[in-house]
Amino acid sequence: MSASEHGEALTPGSYIGHHLQNWTVGDTSTFWHVNADSLLFSVGLGLVFILLFWSVARKATSGVPGKLQCFIEIIVEFVDDTVKDTFHGKSSLVAPLALTIFVWIILMNTMDLIPVDWLPQAANMAAGSDVYLRVVPTTDPNIALAMSFSVFFLMIFYSIKIKGIGGFVKELTMQPFNHWVFIPVNLVMELVSLIAKPVSLGLRLFGNMYAGEMIFMLIALVGVGQLPLHFMWAVFHIMVVILQAFIFMMLTIVYLSMAHEDH
């Protein structure tokens, strides 16, 4: 178990509390601060995704592909087939967006498989003092909700682009009861449904990854015997890592497909 900056052993509660703190920049007593570790790892892993796929695409050959090219092609074909089966509109954005979401979330979620003390202790040694560092961006609700609200803004954009402002407003006010008397009721119901989509999308990802992170922290409390337990939980958690990325991608495709439906 790691020690505090005063050299005293941390209790289980303070140990978990320490690991749940983000490295923040700015005035934490106000809204104007950012979780620098979440931004650092999310942007860094996004660059890893871009550089990896760009490198494979640049070196791609029409002959017998290498193992990495074959693996990348399997992912691209899987996402492309999923989009073709689910998305019923016409857009050159949806497939690249789905691929980006799927791979990027997998990379961010995979950080959960690294033993919880390794990177924070490395940061402590580099800084020469006790610092906060959370390495799984998707356990930060700011990151999860930022991604989900990005999808939400795309939903609104395509709804207006495909249906027009009048069509979008009519969709909110004349469904499910197609009569002017029920416009207030329809508007409340549709707005709640519309806002619930990005909120549930982001909170689902955050909640599942946060729960997995907590279990890894509880395992870390065991001390030197944690690695076998960590490995056993990590094997199971790999399914959660991939499944959460797939669900986020799938719902993004479904929501954008609904936005492209012109009634």
What does this structure look like?
The chain has one domain. The chain has a two-stranded antiparallel sheet with strand order 1-2. Residues 1-7 have low confidence and may be disordered. The longest helix is centred in the last third of the chain and has 38 residues, at 183-220. It is mostly helical and 263 residues long. The protein is built from eight helices and two strands. A hairpin with a 6-residue loop joins strand 1 and strand 2 (33-35).
List descriptors.
263 residues; mainly alpha; 8 helices; 2% strand; disordered N terminus
Concise description?
The protein is mostly helical and about 260 residues long. The chain has eight helices and two strands; from the N terminus they run αββααααααα. The chain has helices at about 10-20, 35-60, 65-85, 95-110, 120-125, 140-175, 185-220, 225-260; strands at about 25, 35.
